[in-house]
Amino acid sequence: MRRIRFVKRPARFPVSTALLRRLAYANIVANAVIVVTGGAVRLTASGLGCPTWPRCTDGSYTATAEMGVHGAIEFGNRLLTFVLVLIAGATLLAALAHRPRRRGVVPLALAVVLGIVAQAVIGGITVRTQLHPSIVGIHFVVSMLLLLAAYALWRRTGEPDGPKVGLVPPALRALTWTTVVASAAVIIVGVAVTGSGPHAGDADAVRNGLDPQAISQIHADLVFLLVGLTVGLWLGLRAVGAPARAVRAALTLLLVELGQGVIGFLQYFTNLPALLVGVHMLGACLVWLATLAVFWSIRERRPAPAAPAGTAVAGERATSLVA
Question: Hey, where are the domains in the chain?
């Protein structure tokens, strides 16, 4: 009589869940940091400190002493891309080695790697188009998409593989989706505001031609809409007795929005000083991440049902033994 025994195939280099989550979180931090440093490049008029790409100059891949501080700033920001690639690559390898492997983790880790590579190419196009505001705007929007992928990866590494379950009524789920869309709209219009303003990254860079006051007013109106939606969401979550983490997430988003709004008004009425604009860019990342935290807080994944005894588990190797 033959008996089949299923033996788990161990990972050659086992990775703990804690390590995988730390690496995933590092991707969030690193992608937010490079948004701020990229802003510093533009705000110090160093956008063409390295006037070509992928080389820094026609004859050198690195900045030279003759290029001065602008070359050093731009080249330093390019070097940070390699740090992001290392972090994302390590996360992908950890996701491949982690056991049990959770569904969706490897594709998300791969998406972060590919997104960073795409950002490097878009950055090169930005330089070659002499900092055209449309390309600069795409560069920033892709950064927000990268933060979305990195955040989704981090949250997925801490979830089981069961089905997603909503924790709030359908009306509040719809309000949450509306808040996410409004948050994205605020960011996109904010990019247009930046493209019409004075901080072009280089004295000779063109602007998008929009009226700064008009587009700033549209941006402010969207901010008021976002704040109103968030207040309504926070009150609604409290009213239905939603999980505490969802209520906290909505309140955190509201506070971040209010802080970002104060910074926005200050920079507008003080003629856009570079330091405040840089803080505002960091605030945009925080608003987006806080928005994503609210979205993830209204649902959860339950543990997957236990597999019937004697069946193989995905990723295991069957070894037959003779009784």
Answer: 1-163, 164-301
